[in-house]
Design brief:
By secondary structure, this protein is α+β, with helices and mostly antiparallel strands. The chain is about 30% helix and about 30% strand. Pfam families: Kinesin.
Length: about 350
């Protein structure tokens, strides 16, 4: 039977110094037990989710409380697992996934500030070491910028890659680079290398606004025990399994008049909003009862094509909705919370 696996969690970031100086009111409050309350002029509404993390929650608390550890274990068991971070620009999506933006190979982040990605990598490699040489790990890292898919790990300037379709693989990116890794240092370096090539820009709401959607996918292959002489599985050996763990850092939704964007920034914002609208449309249709569903328009954007299997196929998905508590961001915050509520009703068969 269908299982509800799009388990949305909510993270409320602290008010920024700019918001505090400006006198913004805090209109979002965590009530505990997975509920969040929005209270402002003409708005008084409560939402329920699997977990809500308020401004004081640590990165470790988000990792443990969101079910991320279980998702890593499911990927090892051969399931296709996906983690979304979505919300308004400047709401803390990239910080939740990766930690501080200022980190580099020469200036690593403090361990307590590391995000869901690095903590998942550590958990995955711990499990790999406990399995001996039973796991083979590789990673790919892509961005969707202005509706072009670009490889963030390939050497040289990022160039557009074709998106293909096949009956066996679904939508896939042709010629993307997959890099094997065996240590935490190696995958951390690949993450930093790719994220530094990702498109970012500054505007009124965010000095480091992501201008692309980024998808980092860990491919996990568990190998059956092989005898060195016969090269066949030993008696009683488990068959090999192939799982994936995909982290999706969505570019933030934004209103051009709020960000002051113009020229190239405005074009980027329109492409971001268009693909997020397509994603929201797919989620709305998937949330309808099975008998009332229409055709799901995955082909409306590159983003929805690449996420088709995660959204409505056989995947297991964790959605992290990042929101600002500021009264100035009320409209976008409500939009994000309604978005997450719809996602909660989507069911798939993992």
């Amino acid at each position: 039977s269908d299982t509800c696996v799009h388990a949305p969690t909510v993270r409320v970031r602290p008010l920024t110094c700019t918001e505090t100086r400006r006198g913004d009111q805090r209109v979002v409050h965590s009530l505990g037990d997975g509920t969040v309350h929005v209270s402002a002029a003409r708005h008084d509404v409560t939402f329920g989710f699997s977990a809500v993390f308020d401004a004081g929650a640590s990165q470790e608390a988000v990792f443990e409380g969101s079910g991320m550890r279980q998702l890593v274990e499911l990927a090892i068991d051969g399931f296709s697992c996906t983690v979304f971070a979505f919300g308004q620009t400047g709401s803390g999506k990239t910080y939740t996934l990766m930690g501080p933006l200022a980190q580099s190979e020469t200036r690593p982040a403090a361990p307590g500030l590391l995000g869901l990605m690095q903590r998942s990598f550590a958990c995955l490699l711990e499990q790999s070491q406990s399995c001996g040489s039973g796991l083979a790990l590789s990673v790919s890292y892509l961005e969707i910028y202005n509706e072009q898919v670009r490889d963030l790990l390939s050497p040289g300037p990022p160039c557009a890659l074709p998106l293909r379709w096949s009956k066996t693989r679904g939508f896939y990116v042709e010629n993307q680079l997959n890099v094997d890794f065996e240590s935490l240092e190696a995958i951390a370096d690949l993450l930093l290398q790719g994220s530094q090539r990702r498109r970012t820009s500054a505007h009124t709401l965010n000095r480091h606004s992501s201008r692309s959607h980024a998808l980092l996918t860990i491919h996990v292959r568990s190998r059956a025990s092989i005898t060195p002489t016969t090269r066949v599985p030993q008696p009683g050996a488990c068959p090999s399994k192939q799982g994936t763990l995909c982290f999706v850092d969505l570019a933030g939704s934004e209103r051009v008049k709020e960000t002051g964007s113009s020229g190239e920034l405005s074009v980027e914002a329109n492409n971001i909003n268009r693909s997020l609208l397509a994603l929201g449309h797919c989620i709305s249709l998937l949330a309808k009862p099975q008998g009332k569903r229409m055709h799901i328009p995955y082909r409306d954007s590159k983003l929805t094509r690449l996420l088709a299997r995660s959204l409505g196929g056989s995947g297991i998905t964790l959605m992290v909705a990042c929101i600002s508590p500021s009264s100035r961001c009320l409209s976008e915050t409500l939009s994000t919370l309604h978005y997450a509520s719809r996602a909660r009703r989507v069911t798939t068969r993992p």
